[in-house]
Amino acid sequence: MFTTMGSRRNGFQKESFILSVDVGTTSIRCHVYDKEARIRGSCTSKVEPLYPEVGHVEMDPDALWKGFITVVKGAVQDAGVQMCQMEALGISTQRATFTTWDRRTGVPFHNFISWQDQRAAELVKSWNRSCTIKVIHGVMKLAYFLTRHKRSLAASLIVFSTQHVTFRLVWMLAHYKQ
Prior knowledge:
This protein is an alpha+beta fold. It is 34% helix and 23% strand. The protein has helices at residues 61-79, 121-128, 131-147, 150-155, 165-175, and strands at residues 6-9, 12-15, 17-23, 27-33, 39-46, 58-59, 86-92, 112-113. The strands form 3 sheets. It has a 4-stranded mixed beta sheet, with helices on one face. A two-stranded antiparallel sheet has the order 1-2. The chain has a two-stranded antiparallel ribbon with strand order 6-8. It starts with 5 loop residues before the first strand and ends with a helix.
């Protein structure tokens, strides 16, 4: 059985839509799609990265939230429909951008730390040069030599970068002053 997007209220079929929001490095974009996947409305808001120090790339959480609300409302208005007609919401975000917050108040402890941020570069270098990583690489190369299983060779190529959120999170936890 094929069902169409829509809801019944008072016996009338009301058309429904899907919101799609992309929170990127330089902008936040929102589109309203109809059941044929046509864009019915759109809105974009600029994201202003912050550079508090050389190599640090941050974003203000309040500004991102306000931008999110602005583009959602703007796209719905541009589509000429109402918010109650939205059936679903899809969100795509930046890779490895993060913040931490007080779970009691919901207030962020710091700005979002962007995937572009380099503050954990020294920590990453120390891990990549560590004896542990060298042993893992050596053992996995030996395993590949003996078995010829490519998954062993792949494991021998592990290298960390500052784009891995864990290193920036460790840096933030070690350096954040409350």
